[in-house]
Write a structure and sequence with these properties.
The chain is mostly helical and about 220 residues long. The chain has nine helices and two strands, in the order ααααααβααβα. It has one domain.
């Protein structure tokens, strides 16, 4: 059996689609004070759903089409997610530093967890979108840019096959580890932009965890 038969061309759309939908659902759980505007509770999830629908229509089934408008659409969607998430992060940090009122430690911890999880998802989407030209380029072997990460599976072609390539779950694990262990653990960042982005994720995660836990303890 050939390596190409072992690894089907194009990764499944479902994992990344579920991650995007999760971002929209988590946003609905954030109190209005931590959103950009009151109407964003409706506009933001709808915008994500519309953009995701366009991506599915433009590249149904497995992700294996290299079309400029699809890549631009994904970039626009990730920028929207980043701007919205950054506002929530900044608003929470400022609120904690300015002693904003929280009804209970549980409320603060829940809010912090929602924003932290959203932050992990957004970074995983960026890693997935930017590394080696994106998921379609990786699947087709048309990598127009040098890989930004080296995964342990790439050192074991006898087990995973020579055509193995990282998919969304691999980048989600990378982002989760960066947000919890403040390091990439088993994945090596080999390009400068990847190292800088991981530093940003670790810094945001560390700030959220430290401030949220400290304030929650103070409320007790």
């Amino acid at each position: 059996m050939s390596d190409r038969k072992q690894v089907e061309r194009g990764e499944p759309r479902l994992p990344s689609a579920l991650a995007i939908l999760a971002v929209g659902v988590l946003f609905l759980l954030i109190p209005s004070d931590f959103r950009i505007s009151s109407i964003s509770a409706f506009v933001y999830p709808l915008a994500l759903l519309i953009l995701l629908t366009l991506l599915v229509i433009g590249d149904p089934g497995r992700i294996d089409r290299e079309v400029p408008w699809l890549r631009i659409t994904t970039t626009i969607m990730l920028i929207i997610i980043t701007v919205t998430t950054t506002f929530s992060v900044v608003r929470l940090v400022v609120g904690i530093l300015q002693n904003a009122a929280f009804t209970s430690p549980t409320q603060l911890l829940e809010l912090g967890a929602i924003i932290w999880v959203t932050n992990v998802i957004q970074f995983s989407l960026w890693y997935w979108h930017l590394d080696s030209g994106g998921p379609a380029a990786r699947a087709l072997g048309h990598q127009k840019t040098e890989p930004a990460f080296h995964f342990p599976e790439q050192d074991h072609p006898d087990i995973k096959g020579t055509d193995w390539y990282p998919q969304f779950i691999d980048y989600f694990a990378l982002s989760f580890n960066t947000g919890t262990a403040f390091s990439s653990t088993d994945v090596a960042a080999i390009r400068h932009w990847a190292k800088l982005v991981m530093i940003c994720e670790s810094a945001i995660s560390l700030t959220l965890v430290a401030l949220v836990v400290a304030r929650a303890i103070n409320i007790l």
